[in-house]
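Hey forum,

I'm writing up a methods section and want to include a predicted complex as supplementary material. The small molecule is molybdenum atom. I've pasted the protein sequence and the SMILES. Can someone with a working setup run it? I'll credit the forum in the acknowledgements.
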Amino acid sequence: MADDAGNGKRGEGAAGSGLTRRSVLKLSPLLLLAGCDMTPEGRTESFLRSFQKFNDWFQSKVFDRSRLSTEYSAAELTPEEGFRVNSKDDDVPDVDPAAWTLAVEGLVERPGTYALATIASLPKRVMNTRHCCVEGWSIIPRWGGTPLGEFLRMVGADPGAKYVSVECADDYTTSYDMPSALHRQTLLCYEAYDKPLTLPHGAPVRIVIPTKLGYKSAKWVRKLTVTNENTGGYWEDQGYDWFAGI
Ligand SMILES: Nc1nc2c(c(=O)[nH]1)N[C@H]1C(S)=C(S)[C@@H](COP(=O)(O)O)O[C@H]1N2
Ligand SMILES: [Mo]
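Reply by user p_vandermeer:
Happy to help. Structure tokens for the complex are below, copy them as they are.
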């Protein structure tokens, strides 16, 4: 599952649950079987699907919003030449950063479209965090942007809503549980290495979410929807872990 490289300290379990993450993970196959209907039809499919559902449910239970992903010193940064690009398509999508706006829909008080200047006027966070791609590499870029939580508060997102779903200009999609969306290190990122984000890296605005695997850090974001429906995502719908915590 997760690329373990440098993911910092793992939490020793959900605060107050009295169980360590590892000990609960050991129990999980038993819990799963207990809740699994053992009908003869479609066993493997439904087994895998229920395992994945359980896994998502479990990861969201142990997710601790106050636990930060490791932030690295300037000396530990990946040099800018090593800031590699990875996208499902070879071509970058047709995005005009100057004309770009972010659309917001769903369970929010102020739906509409928001300019980059509005996003950049919100509090800014700069952080050196690791980006872990499931393809077996990781890098530590220097990211800068607005915490997604600040933006969600500004648009009046319903904090009781379950999910934030993301649509990108290259028809890539992903979605997050609300606690992960509100995590302090989840950014609407518009800078890398103290400069505006470049087009191959998702300009003008991408998500950076260091508490999750790299495919959750959506580039070329164009629409956010606050919803109670889990809309999955491009890789998630092909069997990749949805919660994807690291
Ligand atoms: N819109 C969009 N976002 C995306 C992807 C993509 O294909 N399209 N690929 C994901 C994957 S698998 C990785 S590893 C990172 C790569 O980000 P980078 O090109 O800035 O290194 O972007 C993620 N976000
Ligand atoms: Mo990736």
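Some notes you might quote in the supplement: Confidence is low (pLDDT under 50) at residues 1-19, 21-40. Residues 84-88, 133, 168, 170, 172, 201-202, 214-215, 217-220 surround MTE (ligand 1) (CB under 6 Å).
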